[in-house]
């Protein structure tokens, strides 16, 4: 029955009109079909699975309901105050089954309309995130309904090593001294540079995975990239994520996000003959180039410019951040800088796709010497 619905436009539109108990029952039906791999392991089955995931996300967002199967119980020892926060949620530290976890709790907005919009966005993020399974994507454990009743919280592992930016700063120290001279005589062999390249490669692997699932991250930057207990990369924060081929009105179409990581077409879509502001795989690739610069310099793009408005003007004029040296960060090789420059090309169509970026980074990494590693 579900496969027939997924193949019929009229049936899918009828599903999106469901509300309350009917909507929850259908949400559970779709989720179980995806979770139990009820679709054939062929191209048609994968298309049906993708269609089911999109329908699940859109129905959940429309009706503001999450499948009850996503709820978990047993959260303990929650911090009394948030340890971090974002635009629409606060982060608390707690424990779940003996493991430290992070609770991403919705903020309590006073205006009803704003509260409803944020709640629906929360539902969409949860549905997108819960289906992502990859070594370089932060795991989703479930939805906590009890700790902050009636507010909901998304639960994920606690990343004790913090963000990629904190990690890169922590391992810097004296190894960054005289890097220009070192790189001149021993190109691509400095342990810090090797380690940073490995981290960048894992970021690219995570983004490559998202794009292979037709998911756009939408807000890739250093503060949304974490280091797990095994010192591997975990992409996080899918609040602006969406489906790559979403039609008008189904993707995030506001101007939220971080100005300095945003591609030119997100600042002014009309110049690029685009009808709407929509985050795409191409804008993710642009953001990846900015992240590469970020982790080599330890600073955000255009750090020397105070005003975001000035940054927008420069980006629209085709200007990009300068290539770092040891005076402004850690030096970047000619080969890697070429990849970065390709990724932040002005026109979206001129940027390589993630399979190409991934292959280029893999080839470059394999050509570098790999010392035994550094102490972290």
From TrEMBL:
Keyword ATP-binding in annotation: yes
Top-level taxon in the UniProt lineage: Eukaryota
Domain named Protein kinase: residues: 77-373
Pfam families for the chain: PK_Tyr_Ser-Thr
Keywords assigned by UniProt, alphabetized: ATP-binding, Kinase, Nucleotide-binding, Transferase
Protein's UniProt keywords contain ATP-binding: yes
Gene Ontology MF annotations: ATP binding; protein serine/threonine kinase activity
SMART domains, A to Z: S_TKc
Protein name (Swiss-Prot/TrEMBL): Protein kinase domain-containing protein
Organism in which the protein naturally occurs: Piloderma croceum (strain F 1598)
């Amino acid at each position: 029955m579900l496969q027939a619905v997924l193949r019929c436009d009229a049936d899918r539109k009828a599903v999106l009109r469901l509300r309350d108990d009917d909507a929850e029952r259908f949400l559970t039906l779709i989720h179980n079909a995806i979770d139990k791999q009820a679709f054939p392991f062929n191209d048609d089955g994968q298309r049906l699975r993708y269609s089911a995931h999109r329908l699940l996300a859109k129905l959940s967002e429309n009706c503001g309901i999450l499948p009850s199967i996503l709820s978990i119980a047993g959260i303990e020892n929650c911090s009394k105050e948030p340890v971090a926060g974002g635009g629409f949620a606060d982060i608390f530290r707690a424990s779940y089954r003996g493991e430290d976890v992070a609770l991403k709790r919705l903020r309590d907005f006073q205006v009803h309309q704003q509260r409803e919009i944020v709640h629906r966005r929360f539902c969409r993020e949860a549905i997108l995130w819960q289906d992502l399974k990859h070594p370089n994507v932060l795991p989703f454990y479930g939805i906590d309904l009890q700790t902050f009743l009636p507010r909901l919280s998304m639960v994920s592992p606690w990343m004790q090593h913090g963000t990629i930016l904190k990690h890169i700063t922590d391992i810097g120290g004296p190894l960054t001294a005289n890097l220009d001279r070192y790189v001149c005589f021993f190109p691509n062999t400095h342990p810090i540079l090797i380690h940073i390249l490995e981290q960048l490669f894992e970021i690219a692997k995570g983004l490559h995975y998202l794009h292979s699932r037709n998911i756009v991250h939408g807000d890739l930057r250093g503060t949304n990239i974490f280091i797990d207990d095994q010192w591997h990369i975990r992409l996080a924060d899918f609040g602006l994520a969406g489906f790559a081929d979403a039609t008008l009105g189904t993707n995030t179409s506001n101007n939220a996000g971080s100005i300095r990581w945003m591609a030119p077409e997100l600042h002014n879509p009309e110049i690029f003959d685009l009808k709407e502001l929509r985050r795409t795989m191409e804008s993710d690739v642009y953001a990846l180039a900015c992240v590469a610069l970020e982790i080599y310099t330890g600073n955000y793009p255009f750090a020397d410019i105070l005003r975001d408005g000035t940054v927008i003007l420069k980006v629209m004029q085709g200007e990009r951040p300068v290539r770092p040296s040891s005076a402004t960060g850690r030096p970047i090789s000619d080969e890697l800088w070429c990849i970065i420059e390709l990724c932040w090309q002005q026109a979206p169509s001129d940027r390589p796709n993630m399979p190409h970026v991934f292959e280029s980074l893999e080839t470059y990494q394999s050509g570098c010497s790999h010392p035994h590693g550094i102490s972290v």
